[in-house]
Amino acid sequence: MEQLTIRQASAEEASSVLELWQMSARWLDAKGINQWRPEREVSLIHEWDEI
């Protein structure tokens, strides 16, 4: 079994993290699972940044 190292993403990796999140959401949606909505969450994150 392959060992994985989990760490916090850096700011430079934000676009890659978002892409992974969006791909995961589309995969879940294709299976009929309405779990994640990255587009909604990202807009909320931007709102928090403005506060």
TrEMBL record:
Annotated protein name in UniProt: Acetyltransferase (GNAT) family protein
Highest taxon in the source lineage: Bacteria
